[in-house]
Amino acid sequence: MRTLFFLLFAFSFSVINAQIGHPGQCGFLPDEDFTPRLLANKEAARLNNHDRNDSIFYVPIQLHLVGNDEGGGRMTEKRALQGICKLNQDYAPLNMVFYLKEEFNYINSEAMFNLQFPNVPTSVTSLYAQNKVSNAINIFVGNGLSSGNSGYYTGGQDIIYMDKSFMTPNAGILAHEMGHFFSLHHTFFGWESTTYDPNQPTPQTVMWGNWSNDVEYVDRDKNCETSADYLCGTPADYITVGAANCNYTGGAVDPDSVLIDPDERNHMAYYSFSGCPEYHFSDDQMEVILEDYDARWQLSNLDCPELKDVTETANLISPSNQELIETYDNVDFEWEPVPNADFYLIEISPLASFGLIWDQAVLKNTTFTSNELSANRDNYYWRIWAFSQTDFCEIIYSESGHFATGGQLSTVQEIDFLEEILVAPNPALEGKIMLQFNSQKTDHINLSIINTQGQTIQSINNQLITKGNNIIELNLAGIQSGIYYLRLESDRQISTQRIVIL
Known about the structure:
Blueprint: H1 34-47, E1 57-67, H2 77-90, E2 96-100, E3 105-108, H3 110-113, E4 114-115, H4 122-131, E5 137-142, E6 144-145, E7 151-154, E8 159-163, H5 173-181, E9 205-208, E10 211-214, H6 283-295, H7 297-300, E11 316-318, E12 323-327, E13 331-335, E14 343-349, E15 359-363, E16 367-370, E17 380-387, E18 401-408, E19 418-424, E20 432-439, E21 443-451, E22 456-465, E23 468-475, E24 482-490, E25 493-501
Parallel strand pairs: 1-2, 1-3, 1-5, 4-6, 5-8, 12-18
Antiparallel strand pairs: 7-8, 9-10, 11-13, 13-16, 14-15, 14-17, 17-18, 19-20, 20-23, 21-22, 21-24, 24-25
Helix pairs in contact: 1-6
C-alpha cells in the first residue's frame, strides 16, 4: 500500500527514434496519426461553439502508483492527489473536472519503477496492458526515466507514464502533458531536436525525428495555420527555454528577421518546466482540447460524478485510543463513514507529527488491515482523510488515534485458496527448507521469514504459484539457529507456519 506526475501524447514505442528533449522535460514524440487528429479537432472547433460558462466536462482518471520489486520508493497518495488538484486548477477555465474513477492501483516492478526509456521493454508494455482500466485516463507514476525526461504518453496503449518528481502541487507540467493527451503540439513543434543558432539564418523548416515542419513566422498572416502547432493563437516559439523571470530576451528571429516574442506562460511551451506564474491555454487551444474530449466517447459519455463537498472528518473506531493490541502483523482499523466521502486515505505513523508514514492506502470502504507494523512498539498513530472523487484539494484530517502493538503473530492467518500447507524438514537441518501446498488457482504470493521480535529476516516477493501442487525451496543459509515464522501473504490474507532452524 504505499503510495503521480504525468505526461502525455502521442507515440507508439516503435517510433521513438529521435532526441526526446532536455533532461526533466517532455518525452512527447507524435506518431503519424497525431497531427491529423489535431487538425480534425481544429476543424470541428470552427463548426462548434463550446459554452465553457455553463457546461462541466468530467474526465475520469485511474492512478497507478509504481514501486520497486519490494514496493519501495512509491509516490505518496497525498502528493498524487495534490498534483491532480493542481491539474483541476489549471483546467478550470475550460470547466474541466478530473476525477478519480477507482481506488489507486499499486504495482511492484523495478522495470516499471526505473523505466528504460525510450527503449521500453516488452515486459513493461505487457504490464501496462494488464493493469490499465477502460473508460479512464490511465496514469502510471514511477521513479523516473533513464533518459531524464519527465514522462511520456503512448498512443498505441493509451497510457501515461510519469516521473514522480514532477507531480508537485506547484508545477505546471501536468497541465502541459494533459494538453498532449488532448492532441495539442508544443508551441515550438519541430524544434525539439534543433538548437536555434543566432549566427546562422533562421531556417524555413526544421526536422524532428521523421517529421519535417515549417518554421512559424511572427506575422500571423503568413503560415501560422500550417506550421509549428498549427494554431494561430500561439505566437512563434523556437523552443525558448529558461529565460530569466519567464521573459524571453534571447534575440531569436524568424525567417524574415523579425524578433520573436513567445508566450512564455502558455502551458504547451517549455516555460511550463520553469515555474512561471499564471499559465494559460490560448482560446484555440482550449477549443481543440474540448473537441478532442468530445471525440473520446469512452471518457465523455460516462455518467457524470456528483460534485460533493466533504466537510466532516471521520470518527475513529478501532483501535481505540491508547489500546494495546497483542498482535502486530495483521492489525485491523475501522472508522465511521463520512457524508459525501467516496474515498479515505489512512496514514499510520510511529510519530505523533506523522513526519514518517509507516503504512498508508486510499480506500473506498471504512476498514483497513495493516501487515506492515513492528512488534512491541509503544507508539503508533493513525488518522483518516475523507474526500470525494471530485473534491480533494483541501486536506482535513480526523483526530489521530494512538495505540501500541504486542509481540504475538495474528491468529487470523488463512489464505483461502491454499490447502495442505507443509514445511519440511522442520526443524531445518541443512540450510534449506521445502514449502509444499496445494493452490486452487494461479496467483502470486509474498513469502517472508520473521523472527520472534517481528523482524523480517528474508523475503521473496511476487512468487508465482500455479493451480495444483506447488513446491518452493527456501535457502536458509546465514540465518542463525532459533524459532522463526514463515509468512505467506496474498491480498491481505496471511498464513503462517512455525519453523525451527538448527
